[in-house]
Amino acid sequence: MQETIMKLIEENRYKEVRNEIAEMNIVDIAQLIMELDRTKLLILFRILPKEIAADVFSYVSLELQQYIIESITDKEISNIVNDLFIDDAVDFLEEMPSNVVKKVLRNTDEDTRKLINQFLNYPDYSAGSVMTIEFVDLKKEMIVKEALNHIRATGVDKETINTCYVIDKGRKLEGVLSIRKLILAEEDVIIGDIMNEDVIYANTLDDQETVADLFKKYDLTALPVVDNEHRLVGIVTIDDIIDIIDQENTEDLHKMAAMEPLEEEYLKTSPFILAKHRIVWLLVLMISATFTGIIIQKYEKLLQSMVILTSFIPMIMDTGGNAGSQASTLIIRGMALGEIKTSDMLKVFLKEFQVSILAGSVLAVVNFFRLVIFEHVNYLMALVVCFSLLCTVVLAKLVGGVLPMVAKKVHLDPAIMAGPLITTLVDVLALSIYFEIASKFLNL
Amino acid sequence: MQETIMKLIEENRYKEVRNEIAEMNIVDIAQLIMELDRTKLLILFRILPKEIAADVFSYVSLELQQYIIESITDKEISNIVNDLFIDDAVDFLEEMPSNVVKKVLRNTDEDTRKLINQFLNYPDYSAGSVMTIEFVDLKKEMIVKEALNHIRATGVDKETINTCYVIDKGRKLEGVLSIRKLILAEEDVIIGDIMNEDVIYANTLDDQETVADLFKKYDLTALPVVDNEHRLVGIVTIDDIIDIIDQENTEDLHKMAAMEPLEEEYLKTSPFILAKHRIVWLLVLMISATFTGIIIQKYEKLLQSMVILTSFIPMIMDTGGNAGSQASTLIIRGMALGEIKTSDMLKVFLKEFQVSILAGSVLAVVNFFRLVIFEHVNYLMALVVCFSLLCTVVLAKLVGGVLPMVAKKVHLDPAIMAGPLITTLVDVLALSIYFEIASKFLNL
């Protein structure tokens, strides 16, 4: 079907395109638009049926949203923006340069404009910045029949009707009611009697990660957001939460590779910005990595007389780095999912100790045989290297397992205590141990 | 409230506990149960109102589910299992030892038992293994009024009524209809006229990751699953998808740290299993790390005469490792989110080249000054080291950016081309370059 449409567009047979589109899913239409060149894209956008134009707009990329706004008439802007759900309007305007924002707001009706401005003022990544206002509100004095009629009258413009919110005259949140319960109830039952008063909610200033955790814990599909006076000001829906979960995961991943998290997609980010995000960390790590240089120079004589010791340096450093990364990855992820708490620090310490003894011993033994049999290294040297290996693995896993927890305890993001930072720390310790053992046992 | 209940439980005042619990959210009750010791837990579980016992059961940990089943009577098992949604029953039984599974199935009615067995046969991580059967099915010949009555009659046992599925006599999936559309329609409208025939669906054998991507792309809250003859056999709901998204992210994260992904939570896994999952990779990496040892031995004379060269080895290796990790993390994540495709390989190569020249140059220059001014290294040596640094960064980012894409092209999981593997490869190349440059320019 996509090829048919592309062909029709090439041949400028837009009337037929319109018919084909009538059958398509909004998300697929948006995707189609994103694959067209700029002129055709605008024509296609303009022939979209009015009812779906705003929805399709909300699904195209920010880049294209900006291009479209800059290219269409004021009247057309007005139609789109007044039709968008508030959260989609805010998502879009948050990222626009001020001339675009001004152009849009100039063409928005007054009430909507006030709302948008209010929402744009919520802190980034807060519940307020992702919520929307198109929810169903009921009064607890209503009976089921009235409530259903109210929904029929107003439901077409709501983001969702699957969960309804009961508020009082002052807009204070009193209860929540699923559409299922509403439909299954008798017509004359009072809303106040069947609503759930034990409402799970968030505050406008709560962090989006906290909100996502509520969704995960209680298997919600929508969550009410209240202000400081417990007045219902918006709802967050599950589709936004899924995007937030991916965002948070990407952020953690980037931090663990010692980068400032990117805000845009990789391919859309300029090399200059990519370099900037990585530089700071690379510099910090390099400076601390010179400690290893200092250690090596301290043992200069040892290395000069036994260059073979140098050949094992990379192996010991790599093993320590890997072992430490593995431990810290497990712990950081466990903490992010709520499976490990800071009070578990002793448990983690003991567990990593046991794991490292097991893993480290196997490694040491395997390598002892490898060195002695295949590389003809003398027994004492092999013993020194393998024992250092064991110490390195134990140290690495203890450091890798515990540091993220320490970070969390002092209110730092545990994700920064990952790969590169742990690796560098472990390298310094591992090399010190290696050379100390070597100098003691090889009689120098 | 939690402390009140704990206190009442301590004092064995279970009648009052029952009253308190009547107000509590099912998820919170499950959490409370998980914090009690074994005897009290069983008593509390047994006094739960029948309507919520199965739901609470589905929320406690697998460990506790097993303990409860092993401790209660056959009749009690029967009540729970026949009440559970099929997907929750399957989730639980999938992980149980066979004696528990036999005990449960012995006490399940015949139809349910057949279904459970059928579902247990679906491959792990497939749509079939996470779907459930309690969905609303309608006929297209129905009118809205009939449909709503049908829902009222059967809706209480459904996992969700928010999306209804239209099937024909042979159970073939014909259309989908949201409860919103149903409620907003006139009573005498025919279902077939308002249903959406362009249904987004999955096949029972589709991978759960593919299913999750459909949810993300189309902002779904439920997805129908069909068999090879397009008959509707179940639905997947968004709450399960959220768990799957977290699972897949954790799996990728573990693979990137070169570990076999864990199946259980970290704290619940024995040290022996934790060691086993890490060992294989540590061994593989160690063997490849010995290549670095060979390289160093090749340049033995060089190092013996200029031990200072050795002191820069860790710095060069760490930088290469970090730079490579950063690149591979960005690319792996971008591919997982669908933002980067294998056809983008040239773009990625060019971008990483530009970023690495920028980042590498800054690093090289900063370190040149650091070495010459603070560590009194002679100019030529500093130049050799810093130039090697630049080459290392460029190489690391190119390798780190491109290898995951190559992996995907040959149908391997790109996540394995992360940290440790990239690091080792980069180390070997970086050291070779470093020593080559050093021996050429320092006239040896």
From TrEMBL, chains A, B:
<feature type="domain" description="CBS">
    <location>
        <begin position="195"/>
        <end position="251"/>
    </location>
</feature>
<keyword id="KW-0813">Transport</keyword>
<dbReference type="GO" id="GO:0015095">
    <property type="term" value="F:magnesium ion transmembrane transporter activity"/>
</dbReference>
<keyword id="KW-0472">Membrane</keyword>
<keyword id="KW-1133">Transmembrane helix</keyword>
<feature type="transmembrane region" description="Helical">
    <location>
        <begin position="415"/>
        <end position="435"/>
    </location>
</feature>
<keyword id="KW-1003">Cell membrane</keyword>
<feature type="transmembrane region" description="Helical">
    <location>
        <begin position="355"/>
        <end position="373"/>
    </location>
</feature>
<dbReference type="InterPro" id="IPR006669">
    <property type="entry name" value="MgtE_transporter"/>
</dbReference>
<dbReference type="InterPro" id="IPR036739">
    <property type="entry name" value="SLC41_membr_dom_sf"/>
</dbReference>
<protein>
    <recommendedName>
        <fullName>Magnesium transporter MgtE</fullName>
    </recommendedName>
</protein>
<dbReference type="InterPro" id="IPR000644">
    <property type="entry name" value="CBS_dom"/>
</dbReference>
<comment type="subunit">
    <text>Homodimer.</text>
</comment>
<feature type="transmembrane region" description="Helical">
    <location>
        <begin position="379"/>
        <end position="403"/>
    </location>
</feature>
<dbReference type="GO" id="GO:0005886">
    <property type="term" value="C:plasma membrane"/>
</dbReference>
<keyword id="KW-0479">Metal-binding</keyword>
<keyword id="KW-0129">CBS domain</keyword>
<comment type="similarity">
    <text>Belongs to the SLC41A transporter family.</text>
</comment>
<dbReference type="Pfam" id="PF01769">
    <property type="entry name" value="MgtE"/>
</dbReference>
<dbReference type="GO" id="GO:0046872">
    <property type="term" value="F:metal ion binding"/>
</dbReference>
<dbReference type="InterPro" id="IPR006668">
    <property type="entry name" value="Mg_transptr_MgtE_intracell_dom"/>
</dbReference>
<comment type="function">
    <text>Acts as a magnesium transporter.</text>
</comment>
<dbReference type="InterPro" id="IPR006667">
    <property type="entry name" value="SLC41_membr_dom"/>
</dbReference>
<dbReference type="InterPro" id="IPR038076">
    <property type="entry name" value="MgtE_N_sf"/>
</dbReference>
<keyword id="KW-0812">Transmembrane</keyword>
<feature type="transmembrane region" description="Helical">
    <location>
        <begin position="279"/>
        <end position="296"/>
    </location>
</feature>
<dbReference type="InterPro" id="IPR046342">
    <property type="entry name" value="CBS_dom_sf"/>
</dbReference>
<dbReference type="Pfam" id="PF03448">
    <property type="entry name" value="MgtE_N"/>
</dbReference>
<dbReference type="Pfam" id="PF00571">
    <property type="entry name" value="CBS"/>
</dbReference>
<keyword id="KW-0460">Magnesium</keyword>
